[in-house]
Amino acid sequence: MSVKAFELVPAVERDLLMGDKARINIECIECCGKHLYMGTNDCFIHHFLLDEVTSSKGKLSYSVQKLLHKYLGLKKPVAELRAASALERLIVLCDGIVFLVDMVTLETVPSAAGGGAKIRGVTAFCINENPVNGDPFCVEMGVLSSKRRTVQIYMVYEDRVQLVKEVTTPEQPCAVSLDGYFLCLALATQYMILNYNTGASQDLFPYNSEERRPIVKRIGREEFLLAGPGGLGMFANAEGVSQRAPVNWSESVIGAAVCFPYVVALDESFITIHSMLDQQLKQTLSFRDGHILQDFEGKVILASTKAVYVLVPLPLERQIQDLLASHRVEEALILTEGAQRNIPKDKFQILHKRILQQAGFIQFGQLQFQEAKEHFRKGQLDVRELISLYPLLLPASSSFTRCHPPLHEFADLNHLAQGDQEKVLRCKKFLISYLGEVRSTEVANGCREDVDTALLKLYAEQDHDSLLDLLASDNACLLADSVPWLEKYQKYFALGLLYHYNGQDSAALQLWIRVVDGELQDSTRSDLYEYIVDFLYSCSNLDLVWKYADWALQKNPTIGVHIFTKRPASKDQSQLNPDDVITYLGKHSQALLLYLEHLVLERRTQKEKFHTHLAVLYLERVLSLMSKKPTDEEQLTRARERLQALLRESNLYRVQFLLGKMENCEELLLERATLHGKLEEHDKALHILVHKLRDFPSAEAFCTWASCSQDSAYRQQLFHLLLGVYLDGNQTATGGGAGDLEMAAVDLLNRHGEVFDAVRVLRMLPEGWSLQLLRPFLGRAIRASMHACRTSQIALGLSHSENLQLLHDRLKERKKPIFVSEKKGCHLCHNTFSEPDVVSLPGGVPVHTHCVAQRVRDSPTKRQLTNSSNHT
Amino acid sequence: MPEVSKMKKPDVKVVLLGDMNVGKTSLLHRYTERKFKDTISTVGGAFFLKQWGPYNISIWDTAGREQFHGLGSMYCRGAAAVILTYDVTNWQSLAELEERFLSLTDTANHDCIYAVVGNKADLTDPNAQLYQDSNVAPEDQTECEEERPEPQVLSACPTPPASPASLSGSVLHKQVAPEDAVAFYGRILRYKGLDEKSSLPAEKMCFETSAKTGYNVDTLFEALFDLVLPSILRKRNENQESPTVDLEECRGASNKRARSSCC
Ligand SMILES: Nc1nc2c(ncn2[C@@H]2O[C@H](COP(=O)(O)OP(=O)(O)OP(=O)(O)O)[C@@H](O)[C@H]2O)c(=O)[nH]1
Ligand SMILES: [Mg+2]
To answer: Inter-chain contact B74–A205, Cβ cutoff 8 Å?
Structure first.
């Protein structure tokens, strides 16, 4: 596999140089701008002017004009030519002598007065292109001489050369190159680096210069290219380290040069071109009788013995495109990236991106998705380029057009897959994952609609789970484009979500309802009905709620009512007014009941209307169940329990109203008793319970219930009432019934003895009752009264002792006792005390009790106060 | 290998040395590309730039062929670690390390570390043979299963690595035991004039690997990278010290001088 990196363009053809003189050979060349110099084996220098000509088709050629030729007069071949353009001199090596020639006239420069312009005994020389000495009017030259193991450093001036340094080498050097202070030398058996300033040397590697001609070529700052063993092109820097892997030439390389990123080498019959980036051979050009290969300011010139050619690099982009065309992605990228330093930064970035994108598409075409993705990412591909490969995915409204020139060769996915459905599917899967990844990154900036819509279409088509996630979250799917697509794939639920996302809840609901009603087929959600109900209860548009609640309630009132019952409480407009709901639910009795239950039992709304309404509904249900024949006892029991519970627990419903509704209903006695209880008509209630129902446990329970939030006197009252009812009934009733009441009375007393006033009870009880019967009651009553008596005695005793204690404390507080004796006189009457009872005035002064009383009586406090104030 | 083209300046160099056919290139492939693929005998050398955390490590794969032996010294110049590789089924390959390759490391850094690695352990050690490289890309796994010739097929190579299993009885190459490698490591230290006690111990520096199965390959490279880390840091510091002038430090110094002259 090869790249076309260079083209060989003829420059000076044979007849222009020598006409028909067959024995003339080119020995050396030098090129300096447009000036081409050539040294021949017959000791001539030829001077040509070389002009680039580009044809209308972009093809490059050279027009050559011969300016001059000059015989140097030495009868020997011209071995080397080097231009020192700043000095307008050519440095010539001929017959072992280095001398200077005028660049224009080609006249040999005579030696100046101060020093010679000739060096003798020279085998090779080189120019330092990177001299440490910055003088522009002299040139530094490294010279190898035939006799000594030395390298000499000369300064070349306009008219003289001056030896500045001489360093010895361990062996005879045969080739040299120079950069800064560093000499890179080929010795007889090895290469080495020698610092001519410090004398420090560094062996590079062994090489037999006898066997193969060494090459020492400076290729850049402190870096050299050397011919190595086994036909290697080795790189070495001034530190003696190889920083690039070697390239593999043939064994007989004559000359080599670097034209970044390529290493060009010449052997007897070929020009080989290796990349320095991956060391691979990229191009081979056949070239017979190759003789010279040199680069001059980036221009690579070759010569056979008879003619001169220029190796013209093809534009980089073209090379890269060639590589891409043969799907050599890796190489194309290496070449692109390798060229980074040769191209202006912004231009490079554009090129690099484009190549990355193209590379990505090539790999995409080969279904190497991982690699493709990486290149798309690095190349910042407009995702729409990729989407546009898939027919119909881009929305009709998208403004996208593919980039030109195209990034790939595919018309569309079908073209790419050539009918292979498996391939198509894999590509689609890839796009799904790729879009999924990029949609929330900056890659999708500016084309979110296109990306999301494409993704939606793919999800729908591939029956992908993420369709719903996409629609349920933030997205930019275009409605107009998505609707027909979702309909096509029967994704009605998803479509509804999209409508909802676009604020078209009504459309969403209509669609879903059609699905639930079986008009449309979409099995996405088996619980779509429930979903709609949920949707409605959280829907803030009340019009929609009113509009579709009817449908939902008809479908299933129990679930449908959730629309109203599950609505989250909020304070905004979307709050429903319960009265409206109740009116609305008028025709949905079951739902109405559930709603009222929700209001009363769950939300505990304290509103008479709802409570009464609910109670009435309960009652009606009970009545209707009762009227049905045969009666479903179980249902009826349950219905009554509910009614009873409500009647018992609620205090808000209109009791009279309900009572009126069941006034003459003999079956609902228990309920009526409860209602009477609510009205505090306990006697009526108890009458019903005891006499009509003869349900004594209920009567007892009634007393407990009716007095539960009252004080014990009320409770006692109620129990006495019940006892009275039992006992009265006992007197009036006859037969077995009487016995029942009597037993009930006994049980009541024995069970609830603590509430009764035993004395009153004893008075009420008929004479004939046996004590034995009432033993538990009496026992408890006696124990209770004993207990009460003793408790109060204890309390009394305790209070007494507490009182004494306090007295004691008080005395102790006073500290000083007040002494009263018969010898002491009262301060008021001055008589002595005859009894221990005295009154102590403030300050502990004892006086007679009667004196104080007298005094208080005589002198109103007021006067006393004024008096006392007068005294002071 | 786009890394190569960017020519990032490597922070540190690791060199693979060893006779031809021991599997140097295969080891590098396994580590960098996570697969075992066909190789041709390396010409000259090749290298790979590995990003190790914030550092760039260049790993040089050298050619084992005699012809390129002379290049070894240059490749080892400035190396922070050298991996001396032999083939566990080939005694001579260990001997060659000592005879031919050890002297090439004279140009390496003075604190260079040495690992002795016996490759092709899959041919002698069932653990290495059954090892599964967990990082292999799925399609590559099959590639090595299908495209790898059986060991016998390798006899087409210039020096066939004998599989003891396939050539029962006629063992061409004596196997190398781990103790032999440890002993060699000791001799490396002696050659370098290093004290055994203050150097890295042989147990840490002798490995048996299989480029074919991936056995111990990551372990080898990663252990070495961890060990050359100080070398990297030192190199970075050196590079920082020379060209920059710390103004703070200068000021401090001149102040001190000023004060002392005052007194
Ligand atoms: N069984 C087995 N064979 C291996 C292993 N490693 C390498 N080989 C084989 O050994 C042969 C040589 O491998 P290379 O990696 O080219 O050897 P090298 O050391 O780079 O050789 P040179 O480049 O010539 O120095 C190839 O045929 C590989 O397939 C291994 O771990 N196990
Ligand atoms: Mg190799």
So the answer is: yes
CA distance B142 to B136: 10
Domain count, chain B: 1
| Neighboring chain A residues of B107 at a CB cutoff of 8 Å | 240
Tell me yes or no: is domain A816-867 CATH 3.30.40: yes
What is the CATH classification number for the domain harbouring B73? 3.40.50.300
pLDDT reported for residue A182: 95
Q: Is residue B2 one of the residues assigned to a domain? A: no
- Res. B52: pLDDT tops 70: yes
8 A C-beta contact, residue A115 and residue A162:
yes
* pLDDT for the residue B173: 59
Q: How distant is the alpha carbon of residue B156 from its chain centre?
A: 27
Does residue B4 belong to any structural domain of this protein? no
pTM, two decimal places: 0.64
Give the H/E segment covering residue A300.
strand A299-304
Which residue ranges make up each domain of chain A?
6-314, 696-808, 816-867
- Quick one: which atom of ligand 1 is closest to the CA of B39? 16
Ligand 1 centroid–CA B38 distance in Å is 8
* Among the partner residues A207, A232, A277, nearest to B44 by beta-carbon distance: A232
Q: Pairing between strand A35-40 and A26-32?
A: antiparallel
Question: In chain A, which residues have pLDDT < 70?
Answer: 1, 18-20, 112-115, 570-574, 730-738, 815-817, 843, 859-872
Buried/exposed code over A462-492 (b: 16+ C-beta within 10 A; e: otherwise): bebeebbebbeeebbbbbebbeebbeebbbb
Kindly report the CATH number that applies to the domain delimited by A6-314. 2.130.10.10
Interface of A with B (CB under 8 A): 190, 203-207, 228-230, 232, 234, 236, 239-242, 245-246, 248, 261, 277-279, 330, 333-335, 337-338, 340
Over residues A128-171, the pLDDT tens digits come to 989 987 788 889 999 998 878 899 999 998 888 889 999 999 99
Atom 29 of ligand 1, residue of closest alpha carbon = B38
Min Cα separation B1/chain A (Å): 7
CA of A307: how far to CAs of A32, B15, B101, in Å? 18, 46, 48
Q: Do B67 and A334 touch (CB under 8 A)?
A: no
User: Is residue B48, in this structure, part of any structural domain at all?
Assistant: yes
Query: What whole-number distance in Å separates Cα of residue A101 and Cα of residue B16?
Result: 52
User: Distance between CA atoms of A797 and A677, rounded to whole angstroms?
Assistant: 44
A6-314 and A816-867 in the same fold? no
Determine, yes or no, domain membership for B47: yes
Smallest CA-to-CA distance from B181 within B103, B90, B105, B106 is with B90
The whole-number pLDDT of residue A334 equals 84
Indicate whether this complex's ipTM tops 0.90: no
What's the pLDDT tens digit per position in B179-198?
999 999 999 999 999 888 88
Ligand 2 geometric centre to CA of B47 (Å): 11
- pLDDT category at B231 given cuts 50, 70, 90 is confident
**Token pair 């300050």 in the structure block, residue:** A843
**What is the pLDDT, as a whole number, of residue A194?**
94
Domain range enclosing B37: 12-259
Q: What is the DSSP string of A812-847?
A: HHH-SPPP--TTSB-TTT-PBP-SS--EEETTTEEE
